[in-house]
Amino acid sequence: MSTELRINQQFAKLKLNIKPPEMSLQTDTSAEFSIDKQEGKLKINTRHAKVEINYDQTRAVLNHRTQPMYSDKIAKEGYQKSMQGIKRYAQQGDQLARIENNGNPLISQIKSNYKDSKKELTLKWKPSPQIKASLGEVKTDYTPAKLKVNTQSSWPKSKLNWGKVEGYLDPEPKLEVQAVDVKA
Q1: What is the pTM of this model?
Q2: How far apart are the first and last CA of the chain?
Q3: What is the DSSP string of the chain?
Q4: pLDDT tens sequence across 115-137
Q5: Phi, psi dihedrals of residue 120, rounded to the nearest 5°
Q6: 145-180, pLDDT tens digit by residue?
Q7: Beta strand pairing call for 32-38 and 146-152
């Protein structure tokens, strides 16, 4: 008789039990955001420039006068001419009254009243206009706008479950060794 060794072997299998990770996010409140704005202010004050140009004297030299200037001139010339005329008529009347003093007062008066038609041409200096100017002015006052930003953040709350991996053997490994008598 002989003895045999019988070996029975069962291999183990590794199995995994996996619980996946879980994550959750939660916000209690939303973030708040506000803007306060104050408008800027701009003020502009102006005083206009003034220019006064008086051409009266310049125009008068060229015989372009205003109505008040013509009235004054005509009144003065009329007064002077009337005084000259009165004087001349008085002198001529005196000469004619003395006609007996030999002479020819009538002919001399005609000659003195006769005017030569020749005119005299002259150049005159023309005065420039009178100019008065006052400067203008611009004043600005500026206040810049103001911007105020208010924020209140809200961070989310997170929960994290990392999960789990468990390993186990199914079936368990076995090794059986038997010594068996075998009949020949």
Answers
A1: 0.30
A2: 6
A3: -EEEEEEEEE---EEEEEE--EEEEE-SS--EEEEEEE--EEEEEEE--EEEEE-HHHHHHTT---HHHHHHHHHHHHHHHHHHHHHHHHHHHHHHHTTTSSS-HHHHHHHHH-----------PPPPPEEEEE--EEEEEEE--EEEEEEE--PPEEEEE--EEEEEESSPPEEEEEEEEE--
A4: 666 777 777 677 788 889 998 89
A5: -105, 130
A6: 888 888 888 788 888 898 899 988 888 888 888 888
A7: antiparallel
